[in-house]
Design brief:
Layout: H1 2-67, H2 71-74, E1 92-96, E2 109-111, E3 114-116, E4 121-123, E5 126-129, E6 135-137, E7 142-150, E8 155-162, E9 166-173, E10 175-176, E11 183-184, E12 189-192, E13 203-210, E14 213-215, E15 221-222, E16 227-228, E17 232-236, E18 241-244, E19 247-250, E20 257-259, H3 266-272, H4 277-283, E21 297-299
Antiparallel strand pairs: 1-17, 2-5, 3-4, 5-13, 6-12, 7-8, 7-11, 8-9, 9-13, 10-12, 13-14, 15-16, 18-19, 20-21
The structure holds zinc ion.
Length: 301
Amino acid sequence: MVAKRAKSINNHKVKKFFQYIFLFVFCSLVSVGAKAQALLAEEVTIQRQMEEVKTIALRNMLLNEVNTVPSADMYPEWVNTRVHFKHALPDSFRIDLRGFVMPTTNTQITDKFGYRPRRRRVHNGLDIKVNRGDTIYAAFDGKVRITAYQRKGYGHYVVVRHHNGIETLYAHLSKKLVGANDNVKAGDPIGIGGNTGRSSGPHLHFETLLLGSCLDPALLFDFKNQDVTGDFYLYRRPGSKYIENGVVKIAGPEKKYHKVKSGETIGKIARKYNVEEGIIFKLNKLNSRSIIRPGQMLRYQ
Ligand SMILES: [Zn+2]
């Protein structure tokens, strides 16, 4: 009986021992499993991150490939004089506006780009109100092409040729902070705002040029909202043909309309938008005897 009992105790001990062993092995397995799962999850996350990096890198690579039009290849020469010269413009050109910095933090446009009938001349840029002493910044990375002084025109001014293919001009400065052939980064101070040259009050006269031809800066820069109009701006030479959705189209100046208000005349509308009356007559197939009515839409550009 005693012996039997001893055997039973022994059996009990053995059972307990195996139970512990089983528990230990089970816990170890669970722990290994959890660790493995954690590692796996980590690996998946890393892989995903790698893929994202690859996608971003790939995207940038593709974008750069599309946009690799170094200004050095576009412009046959580098001269420190002559702002406006006419090189043949391509049918289309994609301007990379990424990496911009607004030339001024001021937002008030005091004069638009375009023809001024009263002065019978074209305004080549945008005028932005600045205060004397305000810092003017380079809009993109590039190299300073011109720093000069024009008593009857631009006053102190700076022209920068950018890697994205365009040039920018900053005029009526009270002081220039860069010299010709200096390399600049977007946002580098290049001048101090002022009222030099033909100017009736401190303002920045800002021009954007493609191969020597002026583009309306408002197509690229939105001073009011301190932003560019997009990552890219697709320039199309007016009159050039292109295909969109399988249809051949001809690029032209952007069409703009005005809704006639009571009491308005074509002359008044022409003055409002700085265009010639004749242009409004022609665009709307009107003549001097035509009558315009309130609510009517008139194209002025
Ligand atoms: Zn101006």
